[in-house]
Amino acid sequence: MAIARGTGERPVGVRGRRREPGGPWVFLAAATFYPLTLLLARRRMEGLEQVPARGAALVVANHVSYLDPVYTAVFVHRARRVPRFLAKDSLWKVPVFGRVLAGSKQIPVARGSRDAGASLAAAERSLDDGGVVVIYPEGTITRDAAGWPMEARSGAARLALLHDVPVIPTVHWGTLSVYDHYNKRFRPSRRKEVVLRAGPPVELDDLRARVGDGPPGARLMRETTERLMDAVTALLEDVRGEVRP
Predict the structure, then answer these.
(1) Is the dihedral of CA 63, 180, 173, 245 positive or negative?
(2) What percentage of residues in the chain have a pLDDT greater than 90?
(3) Where does the Phospholipid/glycerol acyltransferase domain lie (predicted)?
């Protein structure tokens, strides 16, 4: 696997790629997020070549800190693609930031409402259009004291089953040591390291073959969710150098 350290170089696998057009709002976000990720901690990004150079893909990632989307955005952008996040709709109400989200065509999620299904429909349209959709299956930052993934929701599984696209497991580690929301700690330091790593696409052909004419059943959704999160957890174990208890 080619490795991209936090020095700005790109792995051989993505160096020659043509960048996906993103427009002025994506440019503005990149101009803000790139230096921010370098200021908060040392940055190490591995497996950028797992994000396909073109065509649709679904990135499923663990979620340990509210800083994760900033790093995920830079990760996908360094792979020369434009990320489309599913994010809680309240962020669209934040001055300036909401304009950036809307302008860069991110996907608002209205949790616990009738509009929640519309969010998945918007994500499906992004995949149909050949976009890279990013989703955190847990739905929020983990409450596990050791930072391991919690039980995931079914939205990622639904997208993965209904769209024959690469599903890329991706993990963050180190963002929690910079910003711990639950304990209200913000401690940026260049002595800390934030690691992002993407693994090979999750094999889902056998599960997709079981999808009938209607929506996937609860059992199939559960099996798919477990397989996705098993891949994410295994990747995180490797990054952390320890086995989940």
Answers:
(1) negative
(2) 76
(3) 57-175
